[in-house]
Amino acid sequence: MIGKLTGRIDYRAADHVLIDVGGVGYLVYCSDRTMATLPGVGQICALFTDLVVREDLMQLFGFPTLVEKEWHRLLMSVQGVGAKASLAILGTLGPDGVGRAIALGDWNAVKAAKGIGPKIAQRIVLDLKDKAPGVMAMGGTVAQATGDAPAHAADDSVIEPVVVAAPPTSAQADALSALGNLGYGPSDAAAAVAQAAGNAPDADTSALIRAALKLLAPKG
Question: Where in the cell is it found (predicted)?
Answer without folding.
Answer: Cytoplasm
